[in-house]
Design goal:
The protein folds into 2 domains: about 5-60, no CATH class; about 65-235, Rossmann fold, CATH 3.40.50.300. The chain is built from 11 helices and 5 strands. It has helices spanning about 5-10, 15-25, 30, 35-65, 85-95, 95-100, 115-125, 135-150, 155-160, 180-190, 215-225; strands at about 105-110, 130-135, 165-170, 195-200, 230-235. A 5-stranded parallel beta sheet has the order 2-3-4-1-5. Helix 10 (about 180-190) packs parallel to helix 11.
Length: about 260
């Protein structure tokens, strides 16, 4: 039996899963005696590794704050009306674009499923160990304003630089004033070599320039993100409309409540 001092050492080193696995093995010692020392050690180490991996995943998932917590790339609806390229989605699913610090733009009319798809990519990134942060564009603008008022703007901008993937949802719902143009420029400029940005928008990319009240900042921001971007455009009617029904062949069900907050797949 392992000594009390060894258990204290495990606690000090925070080897909680290792310690639990040892207790389990000790309770089954009549069977475990048939295994070699190396086999039992491998089981102990694997228990600790899996525990730490799960904790990291939980931490990343909580920090990501994805708008659709249940979104997954495996549940994308490829109804022909949406004109989604399966091969393109498959290539993006490996998140190599995040490794390469490239950006991803998802555009389409209101209700077509942009939020679902952005959350699905965010979830895939978390599964691969990337840090992710999702925020609505209107909330981002408000937080920048409040931070500027209380003198914490540099801290906020620094925090937005950290995640491997920054998701800005519903971009372009209203004009961005000159002060916030400058803030967004700082965010984009700081992230050029540190991470990727995923943007969802109803407006096509060609119309984003008009969202910024300062044309010089607009040029600088778009120049930094557009030329190193991947694009996904979703077609079709709003998936919130009551008259939209899913083809019977898939058996899938979709919300029909006009007031639903998130877009569906």
């Amino acid at each position: 039996m392992i000594t009390g001092q060894s258990f204290d050492t495990m606690k000090e080193l925070r080897l909680n899963a290792f310690m639990s696995e040892y207790r389990r093995q000790y309770e089954l010692r009549s069977a475990m005696d048939s295994l070699s020392f190396d086999e039992r050690l491998d089981m102990l180490l694997e228990a600790e590794r899996l525990c730490r991996e799960n904790r990291k995943h939980q931490r990343l998932t909580k920090a990501a704050d994805l708008r659709d917590k249940n979104a997954s790339l495996k549940n994308i609806d490829y109804d022909p009306v949406r004109k989604l390229d399966r091969a393109h989605i498959a290539r993006l699913s490996g998140c190599e674009w995040i490794h390469k610090k490239r950006n991803l733009f998802i555009t389409g009319k209101c209700g077509t499923g942009k939020t679902f798809l952005s959350s699905a990519f965010g979830s895939a990134a978390v599964q691969l160990g990337f840090s992710v942060l999702c925020i609505k564009s209107t909330k981002l603008i408000n937080e920048l304003k409040m931070a500027a008022n209380v003198g914490s703007l540099p801290k906020l901008i620094a925090s937005l630089k950290k995640p491997s993937l920054l998701i800005i949802d519903d971009f372009g719902l209203g004009p961005i004033d000159v002060q916030r143009c400058g803030d967004l420029y700082d965010i984009v400029d700081d992230r050029q070599d540190t991470g990727s940005i995923l943007i969802t928008a109803q407006l096509p990319v060609s119309e984003w320039h008009a969202v910024f009240e300062d044309a010089t900042y607009a040029d600088a921001i778009l120049d930094r993100i557009v030329h190193k971007s991947e694009r996904v455009e979703i077609h079709g009617p709003s998936r919130r409309r009551k008259e939209y029904t899913e083809p019977e062949t898939t058996g899938a069900m979709y919300p029909t409540n006009e007031g639903e907050r998130n877009e569906t797949s």
